[in-house]
Specification:
With about 140 residues, the protein is α+β, with helices and mostly antiparallel strands. About 25% of the residues lie in helices and about 20% in strands. The chain contains four helices and six strands; from the N terminus they run H-H-H-H-E-E-E-E-E-E. The protein has helices at about 1-10, 25-35, 55-65, 70-75; strands at about 80, 90-95, 100-110, 110-115, 125, 135. It has a six-stranded antiparallel beta sheet with strand order 1-6-2-3-4-5. Strand 2 (about 90-95) and strand 3 form a beta hairpin. Helix 1 (about 1-10) packs across helix 2 (about 25-35) and helix 2 (about 25-35) packs across helix 3 (about 55-65).
């Protein structure tokens, strides 16, 4: 059901060309991340029952058949950087702090991400709260 929704209504930024579309594994990784809704945050955790932000991305993309490095900073460095205009569901959303990436989530469309926010919280869908973000597409 979620996958059908994402494929039908995945982005509110207009049509996306084939060259700009996220790879099918990005959409699969998105579905995996969404399936972990409610899993508790645990620093350094990579699943399957607990996650930190980059651990959720690592786990989701691994399940989709792609490898990502461990940290948000490394994940940013190992993705193709794209503009906000070209983001599609399944792309990664990075939150910089100084010269590093402090947080990462996976774009779900409609200006929202799935992510593991911080200690004391659980994996959830949330509106992107900052304009200071970067986007990356795993390849």
């Amino acid at each position: 059901m979620l996958l059908l929704f994402l494929l039908t209504f995945g982005t509110s930024t207009g049509p996306v060309s084939a060259a700009d579309a996220a790879a099918p594994y990005g959409v699969t990784a998105l579905a995996v991340a969404a399936s972990k809704e409610g899993a508790p945050y645990a620093r350094g955790a990579t699943g399957p029952r607990r996650f930190d932000c980059s651990g959720l991305m690592l786990y989701s993309f691994r399940k989709a058949g792609r490898r990502l490095p461990r940290t948000a900073d490394q994940q940013y460095e190992n993705t193709s950087h794209i503009s906000r205009r070209n983001r599609t569901p399944g792309d990664l959303v990075f939150f910089p702090r100084g010269s590093t990436m402090e947080h990462v989530g996976i774009y779900a469309g409609d200006d929202k991400i799935w992510h593991a926010p911080r200690p004391g919280t659980r994996v959830r869908l949330e509106r992107i709260w900052s304009r200071n973000v970067r986007y990356g597409r795993a390849s």
